[in-house]
Amino acid sequence: MGEFSKPFDAIVVGAGPSGNAAAYTMAREGLNVLQIERGEYAGSKNVQGAILYADALEKIIPEFRDEAPLERHVIEQRMWTMDDKSHTGMHYRSDDFNEEKPNRYTILRAQFDKWFSSKVKEAGALVLYETTVTELVKDLSGKVIGVRTDRQGAPIMANVVVLAEGVNGLVGQRSGLRNEVSPESVALAVKEMHFLPRETIEARFNLTGNEGVVIEAMGTITKGMTGTGFLYTNEESISVGIGCIVSDFAETNVTPNELLEAFKNHPSIKPLLAGSECKEYAAHLIPEGGYKAIPQLTGAGWIVVGDAGQFVNAVHREGSNLAMTTGRVAAETVVSLTRKREEMSAANLAEYEKRLGQTFVMKDLKKYKGIPDLLHKNKGNFFGTYPRLISQAMQTWFRVDGIDKVSKEKSIFRNFRETRTLWGMMGDAFKLVRAWR
Amino acid sequence: MSDAMMAPRAKVEEKLFQNRYLVDAGRPHIKVKAHTVPSPSLMAMTTLCPAGCYTQTESGQVEVAADGCLECGTCRIVTRKTGEIEWNYPRGGFGVLYKFG
């Protein structure tokens, strides 16, 4: 692509939430930005549940609610622990979430990313679609000075390359900027889009207008693997999916498709999907290694944002907000260096990490740094034994059968003690508390 | 739930029919390197691939048909140590085109 003779201020690789946040922020501040996306349109390669957290986007495009394609605002969160026939739920629903500026929305990523990408172009960035970045170009000192793509022509040069290339992050890995992701620190999720008339969804989930419900589920649905299931209400569709750590999947003979079918056919889920028409089957990896899996984030001429940097809070099912925030903060760092006419050196770009340390992104990931290991090493208990015990306790408690309550209490405690032992439970509780802090 | 109620393998292919693809004919983006005996990691892909792209031949080798690939990258990560597959993104514009994502 010889037409780009002058180096860009920045090249952004990828047009997901982190790349769009970065490209938008830099272009709006007047930088000369090129963004390169391998899909036919932004979002064509992207998969998410998907929940949009308003706060992170508001800090980038305050008026987004007026124009972004949003599905439903979330007024109710259901957390379920499941065994094969039951779920025990903790639901939180509040009319406070029916506010002027709602806090969370369900979205469809293909449509949302397309919109975000249109904003990036409006802000003045040049966006190349259908173009895959194949490698980074470095100078003799090892500083990144541009990229090569699968299109013919000379490499495209820039002062800095923002790598927003997602969980697979081939460019950064192949250029030796970071190690390959390990199967233990990434989850494979499969998802389907089920369409239903909006009235049916509203009646089935007790909703009015654009109100929405999200369900997050764990338990025997993942067949002993570390993972969770989900079901989100969109305007005229339901997103339903399930994901487990890749190394767990590799040890079983369960196919992801079978796992999703079993989840969809669970007696607690099946009626919610009844009569729907499935229009898409998707799969994607989710980086779930947390704080300990974060790779090197900056170097001479490069900076990493979003899933490529493992920015996902698996405990809270947050990712897109971390992606947008890291994209924005990286962009602000680049803008500030550009204005001061400073080098995009490793030392100067390290400012990004310092700034990130002040945000919820690093604080939250640090807080939960022990959780991924804990859940993975004790998956049999957390995703099998405890969900079963909880269900059995609930059933014993609620079934009225002539047995007195003191005996019921004793039988519940005995069941927990015999199945998991007192020491086992105390140990699990201790480990959980320690990892949670 | 009994195993009988679980979906048969074939259903994956049916699901893939719902998806949109632009296949780069003759230029598969995933290749399995020639081998006589697949490693356990490569063998695992015959169940692990969410699009069912990997199958074992009668003579025991594992092969890939990447037309229905969802581009998740699981196979790349699982076989990273054995190096049995060559994985690239499809050329720009080709591959799966998510309508909803």
UniProtKB/TrEMBL annotation, chain A:
Its cofactor is FAD. Residues 210-285 form the ETF-QO/FixC ubiquinone-binding domain. InterPro entries: ETF-QO/FixC_UQ-bd, FAD/NAD-bd_sf, FixC-like, FixC-like_C. Residues 372-437 form the FixC-like C-terminal domain. Keywords: FAD, Flavoprotein, Oxidoreductase. SUPFAM superfamilies: FAD-linked reductases, C-terminal domain, FAD/NAD(P)-binding domain. Pfam families: ETF-QO_FixC_C (PF26311), ETFQO_UQ-bd (PF21162), FAD_oxidored (PF12831). Belongs to the ETF-QO/FixC family. Part of an electron transfer system. Could be required for the formation of a functional nitrogenase Fe protein. Probably accepts electrons from FixA/FixB and reduces a quinone. This is Protein FixC.
Automatic annotation (TrEMBL), chain B:
Keywords: Electron transport, Iron, Iron-sulfur, Metal-binding, Nitrogen fixation, Transport. InterPro entries: ETF-QO/FixX_C (IPR007859), Fd_FixX (IPR012206). Residues 45-98 form the ETF-QO/FixX C-terminal domain. It comes from the Bacteria. Pfam families: Fer4_ETF_QO. PANTHER family: FERREDOXIN-LIKE (PTHR43082), FERREDOXIN-LIKE PROTEIN YDIT (PTHR43082:SF3). Could be a 3Fe-4S cluster-containing protein. To ferredoxins from P.putida and C.tartarivorum, ferredoxin I from A.vinelandii, ferredoxin II from D.desulfuricans. This is Ferredoxin-like protein. It comes from Novosphingobium mangrovi (ex Huang et al. 2023).
